[in-house]
Backbone:
């Protein structure tokens, strides 16, 4: 059967129009490779390496290629993958949000591409080349003869870019540039497909945490899909936050909160803990990846020690700058929790619940009463079992019928 006998007329017309606009799509093997991912993913490094090698095989004399993709990372605005002919591997460079205001970006062709300009080409050979961007001077010094930067348009409306440079005499030919330009929509499509999973993982890691993100991406998305596990539980709270927020400007309050959370988050994650949520000026984390509750408790204790040690240096800097000190309490407990998806039909939270979580919160609340930065329950002290904790006697916990023995770290100053 002919194509017209088996395909809807609209589909045939669309295919013919595409062939007219981009004839190389049906004749160049690179186009077929870009479209056919065969149900598997490539990371950005492998994708760029494979693309450059495929184009070299088609006679395009590439020597330097940069592919820049915008990012959803809270600290990284964009990531650039750099391919260099004759060098192994792909080099990555991150552009922070603040760097977009700096001269290197402001004076770059990338800025013009992001603002909507079409492809920019600069011939770098000859007696008087147009070197109107600083990057062109660098390329000329490396022996490049031709440079082209092209926009990559994504379905989200974002504009990224890919740049091509060659050292071949006389630069790129018209057919070579036509091929690169014709392939742009397919390059954009493949890049978007390959980076979508990584972007989703970055977002989930940022807003849910590493382990919840892994579980959600793995299919753990049903409501009430929870499991029981034994964990060391960390709950912390900032001291005097209401007073600070009443007398400090909002930007200063946010900066203080960020510093406070950085101190704790870095310590928790350095010991393999999982931050589950920020609760106003509080933090909930668990340590549950070790082979035993003993190891999980010891990792939680080491993380607390790291946080308190860093707090001393942070407060010394803040005092020197005339800023208020950061003070917080950490409550540690160990026990069984329910871990998984909990919430409403259209809004779930990946978290932990159970009496053990409640008791950890009650232990933390005693930090202010006993004027201690770190307190632990008897269950935590028993699981920890390697010294470093001293008993402060029995104390009543809100909502708990009988007094509980509370422990403090020997090295933690009041």
Residues:
């Amino acid at each position: 059967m002919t194509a017209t006998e088996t395909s809807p007329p609209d589909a045939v017309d669309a295919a013919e129009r595409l062939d007219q606009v981009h004839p190389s799509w049906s004749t160049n093997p690179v186009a077929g490779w870009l479209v056919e991912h065969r149900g598997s993913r490539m990371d950005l490094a492998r994708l760029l390496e494979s693309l450059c090698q495929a184009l070299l095989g088609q006679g395009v004399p590439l020597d330097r290629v940069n592919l820049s993709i915008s990012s959803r990372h809270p600290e990284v605005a964009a990531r650039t993958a750099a391919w260099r002919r004759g060098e192994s591997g792909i080099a990555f460079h991150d552009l922070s949000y603040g760097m977009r205001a700096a001269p290197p970006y402001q004076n770059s062709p990338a800025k013009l591409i992001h603002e909507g300009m079409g492809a920019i080409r600069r011939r770098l050979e000859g007696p008087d080349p147009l070197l109107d961007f600083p990057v062109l001077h660098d390329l000329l010094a490396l022996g490049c003869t031709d440079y082209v930067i092209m926009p990559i348009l994504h379905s989200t409306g974002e504009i990224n870019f890919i740049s091509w440079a060659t050292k071949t005499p006389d630069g790129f030919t018209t057919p070579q540039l036509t091929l690169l330009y014709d392939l742009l929509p397919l390059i954009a499509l493949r890049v978007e497909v390959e980076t979508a999973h990584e972007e989703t993982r970055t977002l989930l890691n940022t807003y849910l945490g590493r382990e919840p993100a892994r579980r959600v991406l793995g299919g753990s998305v049903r409501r009430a899909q929870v499991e029981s596990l034994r964990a060391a539980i960390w709950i912390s709270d900032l001291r005097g936050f209401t007073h600070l927020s009443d007398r400090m400007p909002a930007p200063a309050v946010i900066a203080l909160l960020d510093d406070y959370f950085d101190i704790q988050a870095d310590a928790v994650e350095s010991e393999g803990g999982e931050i589950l949520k920020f609760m106003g000026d509080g933090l909930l984390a668990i340590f549950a990846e070790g082979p035993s509750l003993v190891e999980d408790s010891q990792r939680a204790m080491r993380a607390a020690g790291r946080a308190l040690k860093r707090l001393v240096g942070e407060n010394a800097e803040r005092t020197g700058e005339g800023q208020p000190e950061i003070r917080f309490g950490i409550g540690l407990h160990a026990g069984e929790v329910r871990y998984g998806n909990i919430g409403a039909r259209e809004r779930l939270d990946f978290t932990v619940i159970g009496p053990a979580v409640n008791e950890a919160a009650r232990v933390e609340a005693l930090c202010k009463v006993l004027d201690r930065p770190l307190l632990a329950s008897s269950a935590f002290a028993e699981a920890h079992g390697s010294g470093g904790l001293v008993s402060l006697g029995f104390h009543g916990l809100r909502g708990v019928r009988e007094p509980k023995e509370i422990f403090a770290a020997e090295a933690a100053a009041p």
The radius of gyration is 29 Å. The first helix runs from residue 3 to 6.
